[in-house]
């Protein structure tokens, strides 16, 4: 099911270019994007994480990504953490921080909010209208090619197409 939050954010902040510039969208939503830096003592607790979403002491929403991981991975992490912010999983006075170990991105994770953030990430990086354009207007259906165009992993593209019911195999 497509999340209304994704459509609203894309409608207001996406320039229709591919790949979706997820960092630009986060910036437009006034969310700061930073890298986990193992040499920064303040990041000591971030070791082993793929990413986290937090509201800092100044009330600023921030996303941290692990810059050691692959570019596709980082884009998905950023989109996932953006989901935690946009879907209310991180809220002032309630949940100030949400941390993600690599397993959080497993599609079988039992945590409902993690699954929702993963759906958010897939949908914002692979917008439904853009997928339809590629498949039905441009006739591009090769998963490898689509993954390259949207700058996501082939696995992520496979699951997106499968969830949309566009895979017949
Ligand atoms: Zn998460």
From TrEMBL:
Highest rank taxon of the organism: Bacteria
Regions annotated as coiled coil: none
Domain IrrE N-terminal-like positions: 54-162
Pfam family, one: Peptidase_M78
Name of the protein this chain belongs to: ImmA/IrrE family metallo-endopeptidase
Organism whose genome encodes this protein: Pseudoalteromonas rhizosphaerae
Lineage of origin: Bacteria, Pseudomonadati, Pseudomonadota, Gammaproteobacteria, Alteromonadales
């Amino acid at each position: 099911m497509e999340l209304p939050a994704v459509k609203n954010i894309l409608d207001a902040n996406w320039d229709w270019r591919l790949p979706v510039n997820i960092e630009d969208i986060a910036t437009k939503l006034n969310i700061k994007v930073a890298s986990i830096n193992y040499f920064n003592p303040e990041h000591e607790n971030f070791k082993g994480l793929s990413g986290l979403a937090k509201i800092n002491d100044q009330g600023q929403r921030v996303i941290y990504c692990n810059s050691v991981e692959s570019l596709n991975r980082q884009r998905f992490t950023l989109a996932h953490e953006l989901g935690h912010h946009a879907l209310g999983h991180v809220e002032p006075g309630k949940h100030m921080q949400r941390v993600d170990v690599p397993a959080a991105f497993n599609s079988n994770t039992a945590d409902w909010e993690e699954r929702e953030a993963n759906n958010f990430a897939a949908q914002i990086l692979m917008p439904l209208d853009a997928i339809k354009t590629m498949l039905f207007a441009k006739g591009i259906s090769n998963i490898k090619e689509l993954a390259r165009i949207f700058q996501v992993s082939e696995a992520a593209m496979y699951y997106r197409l499968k969830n949309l019911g566009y895979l017949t195999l």
